[in-house]
Amino acid sequence: MHLVFIHLIVIISLQLAQEYLKVQTELALLIQRKNDLLKEFEIDEQNHQSSTRLYDEYNQLMEENESLKLLTQNLSKQVQQIRQIQQRRR
């Protein structure tokens, strides 16, 4: 009876050791997956910041473009007015 009890303890201990190794392996895999996800998140965050920066830069360039168009129109009008004045003087 005593040997059966010892044998049962050994079997249970082995099963517990196997379960412990299984849990440790799963834990290591989950930690690795967490680290991978964190890296992906950092890359996504950098891409988002880059996209936001590019969007802001695009908007700024569009505003500058509109300003330059208006300036060109105004300068063209001024040149036209100057030419008209010069033609009247002749």
UniProtKB/TrEMBL annotation:
One of its GO terms (molecular function) is MAP kinase kinase kinase activity. It comes from the Eukaryota. Residues 1-17 form the signal peptide. The keyword Nuclease does not apply. The keyword Membrane does not apply. Keywords: ATP-binding, Coiled coil, Kinase, Nucleotide-binding, Serine/threonine-protein kinase, Signal, Transferase. GO terms for biological process: immune response; JNK cascade; positive regulation of canonical NF-kappaB signal transduction. Residues 58-88 form a coiled coil. Transmembrane segments: none annotated. Belongs to the protein kinase superfamily. STE Ser/Thr protein kinase family. MAP kinase kinase kinase subfamily. This is Uncharacterized protein. It comes from Mytilus galloprovincialis.
